[in-house]
Amino acid sequence: MSTGAASTLAWTGAVTAVIAGASLLGTGMLAQARAATAADLAALAAADALAVGDASPCTVAAEAAGRNGAGLAGCDIHGQEVLVRVQVDAAPLPVAGATARAGPATEESG
């Protein structure tokens, strides 16, 4: 193999590695953003369901999370507040998760 061919092969390998790393980084960032969005929407849906007297706000949260490409990992109700945890598959990376809380506004929050 000539020196020019070896150099070209080395540069091609380096560029491929950089592109693969950037792709993984992008995958992780998109999965985290999807998880955060799904958590926010699931918490809002559950809090709304709780406010109107729905007997199963966590079921509503699971449906909202599912519609946004996430799975409900946890749902806790504390009075009129709902705390949800969701997970999004970020293959080949580990799952991305997010947590969100929703409920009525307090006097301190304005």
Structure description:
This protein has 110 residues and is of the alpha+beta class. 55% of the residues lie in helices and 21% in strands. The mean pLDDT is 91. The longest helix is centred in the N-terminal third of the chain and has 49 residues. It contains two helices and three strands; from the N terminus they run ααβββ. Helix 1 packs antiparallel against helix 2. It has a three-stranded antiparallel β-sheet with strand order 1-2-3, covered by helices on one side. The relative contact order is 0.17.
Brief overview:
By secondary structure, the protein is an alpha+beta fold.
Output the number of helix runs: 2
What's the story with the biggest beta sheet? Answer: 3 strands, antiparallel
Give the overall shape, derived from the CA principal axes. rod-shaped
Oligomer: single chain
Mean pLDDT: 91
Query: What amount of the residues lies in strands?
Result: 15-25%
Low-confidence region ranges = none
Computed over alpha carbons, the radius of gyration is: 21 Å
Q: In terms of structural class, how would the helical and strand content be classed?
A: alpha+beta
